[in-house]
Amino acid sequence: MLDFWRFHPVSNPSYFLVEGHFNFLLVGLSVLVAGFAAYAALVVLVQVWGVKVHKNKQLWLFFGSFVLGTGIWAMHFTGMLAFVMPMPMSYDPFLTFLSVFPAIIGAYFTLRRLSYKHFTLINIQLAALSLSLGISFMHFIGMEAMVLTGLMVYDLNLFITSLVFAHIQSSIAIALITIVHKNAQNRLSARLICAAVIGSAISGMHYTAMASVSFYFDQAVSPVTPQMSTQSLVLSLVITGIVAIFVATTVLMALIDKKLFLAEETAKASEIREKDILEQLADGWFVINDKGQIHQYNSAALAMFEYQARTLDDCTLDKLMPAISEQQLMPAILDKQSNIIGQTLALEGIKANGESFPIEVTFSKMTLMIDFKIMFNCVVRDISTRVRLENKLHHAMKLESVGQLASGIAHEINTPTQYVVDNTSFLQAAFANMLPAIQGCRDFFENRDIDGAEKVKDLLDKADFEFLSAEVPLAISQSLEGLTRISAIVGAMKSFSHPSRGRMQLTNITEAITTTLTVARSEWRNVAEVETNFDDSLPDIMCIRDEFNQVILNIIVNAAHAIAERLAKDKDDEKGKIIINTYRDDIDAIITIEDNGTGMTEKTLSRIFDPFYTTKGVGKGTGQGLSMAYKMIVEQHQGQLYAESVYGEGSIFTIQLPVKVQRAAPEQAARQAAEV
Asked: Which of 63, 69, 62, 59 is nearest to 37 (CA)?
């Protein structure tokens, strides 16, 4: 049943069994070749474990499989040369060349499986199976390359035993490779031991398989003296050259590996030191590529955004900071005036639970490229506490502004209220006088007597009907006008103080400025005339409305104070002037507020936006108004605020706001987060 290939018995009486013998010098050389190949493969495998770039890892795997595969092949033919028989023998060149490929392929799959560093039983067995099959196929194809004048047959039991033995020895060898992985401190000694075992396993499989084969010689052919043929001598020299290459390569790689190991230790120490520095940072730190994918991060970043370890792997930055998209990163490199690279941005961060919070972010380009991609450093700072304090300060400033305006607003409301009260009292008295006349008229129409007509006439004369008919409509008109004025003031106060909660919204700039002028009227009406030139075509602007109102109020109040100071200094009775213009310039909305007050010196002009800087007396100014105004316009709205002034002539403040905000970002005040 098994009479196929070379498992059939030899029954031809003309053939007799031939006994060969081994040249033990070549046997030792074959084991040495296998050991060198195994050691070189282990060196390669260690390199594969340390490589992170997939492309480089594949190159090392190909090189390692070639080294191990050709080493196995060289061991086999060295072992075949060591076996000498008294019959002519040569090798088929094609099959000899073909036999090297199973060894290389088996070595590749073995090294690839081991490169994962998952040393489970199933993975060890799969790796051992790849190696044993590669060795077995290489061996038996190599045996078929032998050209004999006799017959070559296999003993089935020994054949199967050789295959099983090959797998067992491969399993032991693969299991020992874990020693190399685990013993990093004694890697060289562990590798030498492991290479010796693998080399012995490879050689042992070969010589076990050789035990399963028998050679029969045809009696009709004259026997020859057992000796190496010329072809075998050439092949021996070739294999000796291969051995020499392997020895040289292995020694060179061992030296290089030692240098690499020392460099690796130094690099590890440096990496640990740098990692420790980064882990101790209070700020979050990310390394991202040009696609916005997060490559690396520290513990502070995880804690800040409330993510668990490794949950940010391969996450994109826009998940944490929606305002930054991948399209902004690469153009930012090319744009020398980039508003991203090297800038500190106020953005909104998103935590793992979806909660948003205010952050400051600084991007910088790295000189190092990872995976052939341009990388960026991203440093993130949680400014929730600072924003809460700023909100409290801002809220206190708003209360201060309202407090300063309160008496003026009360006076603005009191005047129309007074004549509404006076007119209402007049109407009450007039109505009381008219009631008897109205009642007399009613009685007259009911009784129709002549004496009643005279009575009604007397009552109308007494009520002074002609006077009332002229004055009552006027009193009603004045009262309605006063109530309308009160309603306008209250409406302006409500609009002015309506909280935006730090959120951008479309705002009618003209209406916002008009409202602020109404609220601040008590500050400027006695010292200045206000002239407004509004551009009706100006579209609604995305801004934080109450913040914008506060900026306009601060500038108008400062203008009124500057004019009042000039009038007092010059003893001038003529009112000053505040001129407000709005218009559109390219992509920006422009608001200018001009006054003819005292103006500012160059020194004062250079510091007006500094915190706590003021030229007013003690108790009259905190030095925070213009500083907060600058921060609101520049940082929160990505606009511009600047001033021009001539001392003694007046000042012009200019506000530029983007008509279309380019980043939804700076909701820095994103929240102006922690609401007070």
From this structure: 69
| Crossing angle (nearest 10°) for helices 54-82 and 100-115 | 140
Angstrom distance (rounded) from CA 670 to CA 674:
9
The pLDDT, as a whole number, for residue 470 is: 74
DSSP per residue, 570-598: HT--S-EEEEEEEEEETTEEEEEEEE-S-
C-alpha span between 512 and 542 (Å, rounded): 13
Which tokens in the block code for residue 221?
């052919």
Quote the pLDDT of residue 494: 65
Q: Mean pLDDT score of the chain, rounded to an integer?
A: 75
The model's pLDDT over 200-255, given as tens digits with 9 standing for 90+, comes to: 878 877 788 888 888 777 765 555 555 555 555 566 567 656 656 765 665 576 56
CA dist 563 and 529 (Å) reads 11
Write down the pLDDT at residue 486: 72
Encode 175-220 in three state secondary structure: HHHHHHHHCCCCHHHHHHHHHHHHHHHHHHHHHHHHHCEEEEEECC
Separation between Cα atoms, residue 176 and residue 189, nearest integer Å: 12
Element (H, E) at 650: strand 650-658
Query: How far is Cα 234 from Cα 417, in angstroms, rounded to an integer?
Result: 122
What does the block give as tokens for 39? Answer: 């050691």
Three-class SS of residue 554?
helix
Beta-ladder partners of 348: 358
Of 623, 59, 600, the residue nearest 393 (C-alpha): 623
Where is mean pLDDT largest: 90-99, 248-257, 323-332, 336-345?
Answer: 90-99
- Chain segment 382-436, per-residue pLDDT in tens: 888 877 877 676 666 666 666 666 666 665 666 667 767 777 777 777 777 777 7
CB 347 within 8 A of CB 321: yes
- Spatial strand order in the sheet of 284-289: 294-297, 284-289, 373-382, 356-370, 344-350
Closest CA to 661 of 553, 540, 557: 540
Assign 666 to helix, strand or coil: coil
Q: DSSP class of residue 284?
A: E
> With contact defined as beta carbons under 8 Å apart, do 597 and 651 qualify?
yes
Q: Which residues fall within 8 angstroms of residue 171, CB to CB, at 6 or more apart?
A: 124, 125, 128
Half-sphere exposure of 151 (CA within 13 A, CB side): 18
If we measure between CA atoms, which residue out of 500, 20, 50 comes closest to residue 267? 50
Strands 294-297 and 344-350: unpaired
Query: Considering the chain, what percentage of its residues have pLDDT values greater than 90?
Result: 3
Mean pLDDT over 502-511 rounds to: 82
Q: Which of 629, 630, 622 is nearest to 400 (CA)?
A: 622
Q: Is 321 helix (H, G, I), strand (E, B) or coil?
A: coil
Q: How far apart are CA 546 and CA 141, in angstroms?
A: 87
Q: Contact 214/152 with Cβ under 8 angstroms?
A: yes
| Residue whose entry in the numeric block shows the structure tokens 């996450």 | 315
Where b means 16+ CB within 10 Å and e means fewer, 257-276 reads beebeeeeeeeeeeeeeeee
- Distance between the two ends of the chain, CA-based, in angstroms? 93
